[in-house]
Amino acid sequence: MKVAIVGAGFTGLSVAYKLTKEKITVDIFEKEKSLGGLASSFSLPNWQNPLEKHYHHWFTNDSHALDLIKELGLEQDLIFPKTTTSIYYQGNSYPFNSPLDLLNFHPLKLSSRVRTGVILLYLKILPKVWAIELEKFTAYYWLEKWFGKQSFEILWQPLLLGKFGALASKINMAWFWARIKKRTMRLGYLHGGYQKLIDSMAHEINQNGGKFFLSTSFDSNHVSKYDKVIVTAPTDYFLNTFRNFPVEYKRRLSQIPHLHALNFVMITKKKFLDRVYWLNINENNFPFIGVIQQTNMIDCSSYGNQHITWVANYLPPNHPYLKMTPDMLYKTYLPFLKKINKDFDFQGSIINCYTFLGKFAQPVFPVHYSRVKPDFITPFDNVYLANMDMVYPWDRGTNYAIELGYEVAKMVTRES
Length: 416
Prior knowledge:
Elements: E1 2-6, H1 10-21, E2 25-30, E3 41-42, E4 51-52, E5 58-59, H2 63-71, E6 78-79, E7 85-89, E8 92-95, H3 99-103, H4 110-125, H5 128-131, H6 139-147, H7 149-164, H8 173-182, E9 187-190, H9 194-207, E10 211-214, E11 228-231, H10 235-241, H11 247-254, E12 258-268, E13 278-281, E14 290-293, E15 307-315, H12 326-340, H13 346-349, E16 350-363, E17 383-385, H14 398-415
Parallel strand pairs: 1-2, 1-11, 2-10, 7-13, 11-17
Antiparallel strand pairs: 3-4, 5-9, 6-9, 7-8, 12-15, 12-16, 13-14, 14-15
Protein name: Amine oxidase domain-containing protein
GO molecular function: oxidoreductase activity
Domain Amine oxidase: 10-410
């Protein structure tokens, strides 16, 4: 059997890894010049390790990713350092890592803090089989009802608005539950970055006979050359690559909204955030949603003793920021970065800035999303779909990309 895999992100790599271990002939097509998809990396000449274009980390319960790391013999490079997550609200940064931090979060009155803690605990222990029923409610409705108006307006509404903008009120509560359910106290990373895992997977795939075709788009004319085709690229790509879809199928997949990830990377001489790794922005007037200080997780010696800061954003496809150069985006963000750290010497510390765009990075999950969620099976014989629109209710991430790849590989192997 000969299989084509479209897309060499973690889903595509995971499919290829599993199939080639079964001695199935696999060709992997990737339109970019490098592997990894949204987890692809870049490097500078004086760096020891590459850096992801889009920030990444693992939770301690990301079993598929952690098992794969162990299987490939990389567990000695896996770390779960102690890091700090904080909330920026009304000009102040508040730690938000533990129940004690919540009790000390003074913008909420004491009764709201206690109520918030109780509801968070409820969501944390709620099993998936029950939580999926929450998809019939919007997160807006459920969060305000159960957390209370103050907690909703200070903690949750700004995060939803920051990430989803005009679509924030449509997000269903099952997706929000998954964000609470999955989060762990410690966050993980590999010495050598995600590129080390990507390279290890690619090496195994090559050793088992798989072939990569980089900078190569797959089109429908290729289909006849393969027994099976597995598309792991975004749904938009799938709909534009193949033709003659049944009307209802195309309508169902076309109604799934997506946002693009826009990440602005600052390379600096000094840390922008002194101790905080992840800073959520709970201010509705800010033009970005978070600041991630990579060198508060990984020592700056990995990056030529330079410091790395991501400034995170999710934007609709027509947003003007997507067309900005790094310099233009820096000037747009600068007044707000100064609010976060008024003492930072931007002129003297900044070495360089970069922007990276991840198209269709974030699916938007409205109420009753399970009714429109794509399936592995498509209207075309022997053509399968497996992408981030399908990991619901979990949020996108490499752990679920790996699981998705394994599942479709198992299906194809079983059918063969």
